[in-house]
Amino acid sequence: MAKICVIGSSSMDLVVTSSRRPGAGETVLGESFKTVPGGKGANQAVAAARLGAEVYMIGRVGEDTFGTDILNNFEANGVNTQNVKPVTHLESGTAHIILAEGDNSIVVVEAANREVTPAYVDEAVDVIRNADIVLIQQEIPEETVVHVSALCAKFGTPLLLNPAPARMISQEVIDNASYITPNEHEAEILFQGVSPAESLRQYPNKLFITEGSKGVRYFDGEQEVLVPTYQVKAVDTTGAGDTFNAAFAVALAEGKPLQDSIRFANRAASLSVTKFGAQGGMPTRAEVEESL
Ligand SMILES: Nc1ncnc2c1ncn2[C@@H]1O[C@H](COP(=O)(O)OP(=O)(O)OP(=O)(O)O)[C@@H](O)[C@H]1O
Ligand SMILES: [K+]
Question: Name one GO molecular function term (predicted).
Fold first, then answer.
């Protein structure tokens, strides 16, 4: 079984659906409200566990009811929570999501996730050393991502960096990462002033730009390749990126060839958009294999 270490955020998503999103200073009437566990780190951990990996989460929660719910949800999905320790002085992270006009807009309050520090990660250094792959995102402090990238380089553990939400990353982190998976918007911020085609060319078989319903683009050393995703009836795209990253990590950790890994990830992510919620749509291994 592939061993995956996920280092990242855990939060409670507070999700509102509305026919229209409010502008500044405006109030609109919504249609429904739900709380669901989320956070890019937690989402990717749950997705990887459903796809059959042995998943070790390194993260933090608050000592509040959201924290308990987040831990229960990890356990219900078979994610190891030995390294998800409560923070006493901060609340659990929350994400405030509006689903309107066929897309999502999100405000993230990091709270306990700010305590996923380099020193905290060091307490679980053996998990990183022993993993087949480490999966990390950017809802935790930047210095932690830098630190983890150096640890992965030192141990020879492959690192998949999902640079979301977007921020500038140092050349050192880019060099230490084995795989980097921005969406189109994140790629623009990461490689300012450089066209997508040029940046892909610069990082062959390392940079993978996800393009929503079009699929995934990368440069294979000789040419630019677009691996198309699968056509589905999209209900809610929340969690598509998280499912893609988790599935890509699982396939790579299992030693699948690159193109097969992308296809597996496209398949899993396309299934995820057919259902409501980030984790709500994340498919099981059997569901992905049946549909491939
Ligand atoms: N409408 C869709 N139909 C099929 N597959 C999709 C669709 N939207 C997304 N995907 C799959 O999910 C992957 C990631 O989507 P996208 O590039 O939109 O990432 P993202 O912006 O991080 O997603 P999100 O923030 O909505 O979770 C795509 O490369 C594709 O495999
Ligand atoms: K979804």
Answer: ribokinase activity
